[in-house]
Design goal:
By secondary structure, the chain is mainly beta. The protein has one domain. The chain is built from no helices and 4 strands. A two-stranded antiparallel sheet has the order 1-2. A two-stranded antiparallel ribbon has the order 3-4. It is rod-shaped.
Length: 58
């Protein structure tokens, strides 16, 4: 899974005004066990939840 994260924070006080911005790309890698059938792995990402279905080799 790959993506990009952006974040912005603003603050206003009596003596100063603050703006912070951060951004960057990220990648998540999952290592599957040896007994997983790599050709039949399915993955979905919905509502911030990653679901991975990995059948075992027969």
């Amino acid at each position: 899974m790959r993506g990009e994260k952006q974040q912005k924070k603003e603050g206003k006080e009596k003596n100063y005004y603050l703006i912070e911005r951060s951004y960057g790309s990220f990648q998540r890698i999952l290592t599957l066990p040896d007994d997983a059938n790599h050709d039949e792995v399915q993955a979905t990402f919905k509502n911030k939840v990653l679901t991975v279905i990995r059948p075992n080799k027969a």
